[in-house]
UniProtKB/TrEMBL annotation:
Source organism, top-level taxon: Bacteria
Name of the protein: diguanylate cyclase
Pfam families: GGDEF
Keywords in alphabetical order: Membrane, Transmembrane, Transmembrane helix
Organism placement in taxonomy: Bacteria, Pseudomonadati, Pseudomonadota, Betaproteobacteria, Rhodocyclales
Species the sequence originates in: Azospira oryzae
Stretches assigned to the GGDEF domain: 256-386
């Protein structure tokens, strides 16, 4: 019963976003915990850029409304509101000037928290100030406009590619702020009006959440296409370079080992020449499947070009990398069209052992050793410069 219900829900959701997600990616809409590192970095960059755009808009427009306030409110009230507006505008401007994308989701969350905290505090403060005045006519109409700020903020969530959990966590403070404002004016609260406004806020939150999820689904689909090799389904060279750069930084900061293996399928050109490119593609897919089935948890495989592959092995020293390659060679790399086994020449390099200062040098080391494996007779592993 549970599986049938999940199946129905899945089909309903994919019907709303046809062709964008596969079933394995559905959980990615719920929590960022399931996201690939590359997706997280791209999403973090996009979130911070949109935070800065949002903050710029608020920094410019927030003080301008003081002109309207000046025309309708008494001076003491106008001065207090104008002071709050200037402070809020300065805070927004500082967010624009001093916050830059770093590719870190933690930084992105912090930027969003600051962005929404500024107007939320402004809303609570101005609401508490306005309830102390008996406003009538045009004053009451302009004063009522301040009550629309939470609606604007919650609608603004729709421009961010957020998961369901993230949307809930960022919307909750604003919904709570609305509840707090009602508690502050408890004695004079118009309950039907308050309940209607709160329901509308909840509805806007739901619509913004759907818009954010739709953006995220589209982004997942685009990133998948960008980071995956279309033939084999593993990481493309460009995404492999990003992963390797990130892993190298992590390895350097933690002083942990990082090994890579450069694999080149032996005599692959002969397959294309004798059996055609379709047969060659089948050999590549078979080799990729064989390698992928024997990867350890945390290892990442990228197609570097043609019949060349890079295997990234975080927290792996040279001896462990050699053991991993021995197991992989024993499992095999698939079969050629004539039924003979596919073999590979492999070069291994490790950050600490080879004392490399950047990931490109690490790749060059592994590449050079792979060529020496070929020159030494193919179908072997070279892991140092002594052979």
């Amino acid at each position: 019963m549970t599986s049938r219900l999940a199946h129905i829900v899945w089909h309903r959701l994919t019907g709303l976003m046809p062709g964008e997600l596969n079933q394995a990616e559905l959980a990615w809409l719920v929590s960022p915990h399931f996201h690939l590192t590359l997706l997280s970095r791209r999403r973090a960059t996009m979130i911070v850029n949109r935070v800065r755009l949002f903050a710029f808009l608020f920094a410019v427009l927030t003080p301008l409304w003081s002109i309207i306030d000046y025309l309708v409110f008494p001076f003491p009230l106008w001065f207090a509101l104008a002071s709050m507006r200037i402070l809020a505008s300065v805070a927004f401007a500082l967010l624009v000037l001093y916050y830059r994308p770093s590719g870190s989701l933690t930084d992105a969350y912090r930027a969003m928290a600051i962005l929404f905290a500024i107007p939320t505090v402004f809303y609570v403060a101005t609401h508490q100030l306005l309830v102390n005045y008996q406003l009538t006519g045009m004053q009451a109409a302009i004063g009522a406009g301040y009550a629309f700020l939470p609606f604007v903020l919650l609608a603004g969530l729709s421009i961010f590619p957020l998961t369901l959990l993230e949307n809930i966590l960022f919307a909750l403070p604003m919904l709570l702020a609305q509840a707090v404002s009602g508690i502050i004016s408890w004695a004079t609260l118009d309950w039907p009006s308050f309940a209607g406004a709160f329901w509308l806020l909840t509805l806007i939150t739901g619509v913004s959440t759907l818009a954010g999820l739709s953006q995220l689904a589209f982004m997942i689909a685009l990133v998948r296409q960008a980071v995956r090799d279309p033939l084999t389904g593993i990481f493309s060279r460009r995404s492999g370079e990003e992963v390797l750069e990130l892993q190298f930084i992590i390895s350097t900061r933690s002083n942990a080992p990082l090994a890579i293996a450069f694999l080149d399928l032996d005599n692959f050109k002969a397959v294309n020449d004798r059996y055609g490119h379709e047969a060659g593609d089948s050999v590549l897919v078979g080799a990729t499947d064989s390698i992928s089935n024997n990867l350890r948890r945390g290892d990442m495989l990228a197609r570097w070009g043609g019949e060349e592959f890079i295997l990234i092995m975080p927290n792996t020293d040279l001896e462990q990398a050699q053991q991993a390659m021995r197991r992989m060679r024993q499992a095999g790399f698939g079969l050629r069209p004539d039924g003979s086994p596919v073999t590979a020449s492999i070069g291994i390099a490790e950050r600490l052992e080879d004392q490399t200062l950047d990931w490109k040098t690490l790749v060059e080391k592994a590449d050079q050793r792979m060529y020496r494996a070929k020159q030494s007779g193919r179908d072997r592993v070279v892991c140092d410069d002594t052979v």
